[in-house]
Design goal:
By secondary structure, the chain is mainly beta. Helix content is 10%, strand content 53%. An 8-stranded antiparallel barrel has the order 1-2-3-4-5-6-7-8. 30% of the residues are buried.
Length: 231
């Protein structure tokens, strides 16, 4: 029996020794939005955010990457950073789900073959889609009224730095900015059935909303590792 366990352990080690082609892991951190309600701090991770990250390492310099992120966004005007908004007293809660794909570029070679500790700054650029709740702010009250689900295109740009804790584990820290194709994450531009001006709109209607994810990524490598050889 002990010999069988030993053989199984050696088999697993042999498989994991080749397990550096793909990466699958999680994002854990915080998020914030920049829009027409509350303070406009650009990086202020006040809401918990989680997600999944997948990478296909094509070379030591770039990877194809997919993200699935979730944040339960809450924001209010109760901030002394903007007295006009503080006096208005709007607040809201929204659930943001993002799915995005793109390319991650390493600034230096990040070779998963290497046995020594490696690190590299990186940049991710891509395109994605977000789902969120649609709502409006009830006039003369502090209540919000939901009326459906919305979806829009989003353009993520992520900057970070990563290191390999072992041949099988990669740790990264990143800040990811998302520019959205909507101005309605905060209920400031609710939809109408006509082209007439909507009296429920408020804020700067010429600027779309942004949101930012800040946190750590933990990923585990698997699959056959390419040789990265030059012909």
């Amino acid at each position: 029996m002990k010999r069988l366990w030993f053989l199984l352990a050696m088999l697993c080690f042999t498989v994991h020794a080749r397990a550096q082609f793909h990466e699958l892991g999680a994002f854990v951190g915080g998020g914030n939005y920049v829009g027409d309600i509350g303070a406009t701090y650009f990086v202020f991770p006040e809401n918990p955010a989680v997600g999944l990250v997948y990478k296909w390492n094509r070379t030591t310099r770039y990877s194809l990457r997919a993200n699935a992120m979730f944040m339960n966004l809450t924001k209010s005007d109760y901030s002394p950073a903007d007295f006009a908004r503080f006096s208005r007293r709007f607040r809201f809660e929204n659930q943001i789900m993002e799915f995005s794909v793109g390319a991650e570029i390493n600034y230096v070679d990040f070779n998963l073959h290497a046995s020594d500790r490696a690190w590299s700054p990186y940049l991710f650029l891509g395109i994605g889609f977000i789902r969120y709740n649609l709502f409006y702010h009830e006039p003369n009250t502090l209540e919000t009224v939901e009326y459906g689900k919305g979806g829009d295109i989003v353009f993520p740009a992520i900057a970070g730095v990563k290191t390999n804790l072992s041949p099988f584990v990669v740790l990264g820290f990143e800040i990811g900015v998302r520019y959205t194709m909507t101005d309605n994450l905060d209920g400031s531009a609710p939809e109408t059935e006509s082209n007439l001006p909507n009296p429920l709109m408020f804020g700067n209607l010429n600027n779309n909303d942004w949101f930012v994810f800040t946190g750590l990524t933990f990923s585990f490598t698997f699959g056959d590792l390419p040789c990265y050889c030059k012909e």
